[in-house]
Write a structure and sequence with these properties.
Two copies of one chain form a homodimer.
Chain A lengths: L3 H8 L3 H9 L7 E2 L5 E2 L2 H15 L4 H12 L6 H36 L9 H9 L7
Helix pairs in contact in A: 5-6
The structure holds a DNA duplex (30 and 30 nucleotides).
DNA sequence: CTTGACCCTGGAGTATACTCCGGGGTCTAG
DNA sequence: CTAGACCCCGGAGTATACTCCAGGGTCAAG
């Protein structure tokens, strides 16, 4: 069990952010010291890392809360829980496709840059994106 | 040449957002009508779609402006331009890895949900993420 | 028993990316 | 020539995700 500052340095997240996450229902301290200090354990650190990964994947805190709830339900593994998981997966996959297209486009750009004799094609990136026929999800 | 409303409906973006993008230096109308109406062409629509794709990939508007500038430079294809492209690519690839890990984790979750006899493993998502050993870039 | 490093709460402030509004011009169809 | 649908600008408001105080308590070391 350690205090907030330790968790903060373990996860490269500020104390304020951790308190904010708690306020938003994303993490709960494992306990509290007599003086009212928040106390955390290794699972807390895992949870924070998960949140950061998910954020890095483009999820909002609200969505991440959903994912965590989804993970938390030990039994109620039916209907909407599964549906949400499938939804998220489709979302992620569409993002991956978009990102791969971007990556390819950048490859092209980098390649064009490599042989400096050729000027950069005006539309390298856009063309690559359009070839990839990526669908941007409508929010 | 068409007006802002048309571009808005073509790209599923609001008039306000288009004006905001202009203000932020992401798009310029191809021209203006005598009355001062913004006039756009097909390239404008492409550009907007590019912005949306890039946003969907987790780029900020500031970064997208960079990407567009990068794309725009017909000659100055050296040094920092190339460097930035390489940087972006690394960024994207790290995100793709993280997203693949998320996707796999969700697969597992969905699979667990499929045979409802088994309760959901408490740590399915987190465990998968940790197996994937994803590095979250420090901003 | 004080100093410095830590913790608490509540609330205000910031950056990003829109979104909405008021007040007013433009333009096309009837 | 007027009604309705469109456009303009400037500025205020909103949601998200922090970030930074102020004012005060806790605690281990010297």
């Amino acid at each position: 069990m350690f205090t907030i500052g330790k968790l903060a340095s373990l996860t490269s997240v500020s104390n304020d952010t951790l308190r904010y996450y708690e306020q938003e229902g994303l993490v709960e301290p494992a306990g509290k010291s007599p003086a009212g200090y928040r106390l955390y354990d290794k699972d807390s650190a895992r949870r924070i890392r998960f949140i950061k990964h998910a954020q890095n994947c483009g999820f909002t805190l609200a969505e991440i809360r959903d994912l965590l709830v989804l993970r938390g339900r030990d039994k109620a593994c039916c209907g909407d829980v599964r549906t949400r998981a499938v939804e998220k997966k489709l979302q992620i996959e569409s993002k991956i496709r978009a990102m791969k297209a971007m990556s390819k486009a950048l490859d092209q750009l980098i390649a064009d840059c490599a042989n400096e004799t050729q000027p950069v094609n005006e539309c390298t990136i856009i063309a690559a994106l359009e070839r990839a026929n990526v669908k941007t999800p409508v929010h």
